[in-house]
Amino acid sequence: MSRAGSVAAIAALAAALSACSTVGNMMPWGGNNDESTSDIPRDQRISILAFEQQLTPDPALASRTITPPPTTTVTEWPQAGGTPDNSPPHSAGAAVLERAWRADIGAGSNDRVQIAAPPVIAGGRLFFLDADHRVQAVDASDGDRLWSRALRPVASRDSRARGGGVAVSGGRVFVATGFGYIAALDAANGDEIWRTQVSAPFYSAPSVVGGRVFAITNDSELVAFDAGSGDVQWTHPAIAESARILSAPSVAVDGDTVVAPFASGEIVALQGGNGRQLWSESLSRSGALTSLSAINDIAGRPVVDNGVVFAASHSGILAAIDLRTGQRIWARAFASTQTPWIAGDVLYAVSIDGELVAVDRATGSVYWVRQLRRYRDEDDREGRLSWTGPVMVGGRLVLANSIGEVVGVSPQNGEVVARADVDQPVFIPPIVANGEIYLVTDQARLVVLR
Predict the structure, then answer these.
(1) Which of 285, 289, 318, 361 has the fewest Cβ atoms nearer than 10 Å?
(2) Do residues 398 and 387 lie in contact, with contact meaning Cβ atoms separated by under 8 Å?
(3) Where are the domains of the chain?
(4) pLDDT tens string 264-317
(5) Could you tell me the pTM of the whole model?
(6) Cα angle at 353 between 4 and 377, to 5 degrees?
């Protein structure tokens, strides 16, 4: 069964799971002989917690007008989160969601392996790690293939792996792999410069800043590498979890502070130079009703903006944390597997139930709540959908879902003002460069919208 065709079946399974006390049907971390770690397929990002989180607009904000910050010309998206702090600017562009072009960029997901990390763009080239663990480099203006590099170990008995992703810096493509090593490739031709093996596969996309590469393994160990040589500079072990959401999160870096998300619901700040822990906070919720809702994974990326960390967990906490002290500024009951988007004084986030919210970044108070489409068949409430995003471009929030719908939403009130269809499921957040919106479908088709 294809991933697109399995949405309805998995939704039915998830409904059964919500009535029992075991998670069940978790996907093992494929091809790495690690029986202790499991993924929840992204189609299972369902509303176990919907009735626990009743978000309502704050009447005190009704008189305020949301004004998005001015647009910036964004020419590159070199990290999975756009920038080292995972807080890219409001990009210039039209965002009318007209299709510009499309191209196939490698192997897509199947029953055994899935793509999880977004592409990155630098120097006019787009780089992507496909489901076969092959790095694809294409022209970012038309999708023409430039080079392709297979990263499956020749001598390994493992033929498949999940996890990992890519980042670009200084003319090199850094690739964290589900085979338990990280590599640096020449961005011009794909030639391998160095490779470093660690003790466990990577599930996160790498982040590169200040001459260091940061990535998290599937046993929840953050590893810092020297970007020039690949040498391990330090490691930080966190609480290991036996289950997580299938995604490829990455750390946020602000100055010399690294903020790392973990499957346990921990968010940890460390010194980039030596790995010394500065503080740790938990975004897990006690008293979860089912085993599935008890998964605490921070599957989206933490965002650092003006000295504040914003992050959300699957088990149901959206929080703002002081970067310097680690103290919570505010927290809301809100379950999400996506990265929040900060635009001026407003935070935007989408829940596992498809609720898009606009929140005052200073207080956590709610401006508005918009329920996006929840089901493939809304009348019969069948085929639950999952949403990914948002990004802000051209004065609109852009999100995509698991049946291939793309929407442009007004940041002022949540009204859907533009729509498109890319014909295939989308589970990876969109990225933006030069006013164009890049989406990768689950079949590894690159669709570019304007």
Answers:
(1) 289
(2) no
(3) 7-449
(4) 999 999 999 999 999 999 998 765 444 555 788 999 999 999 999 999 999 999
(5) 0.89
(6) 50
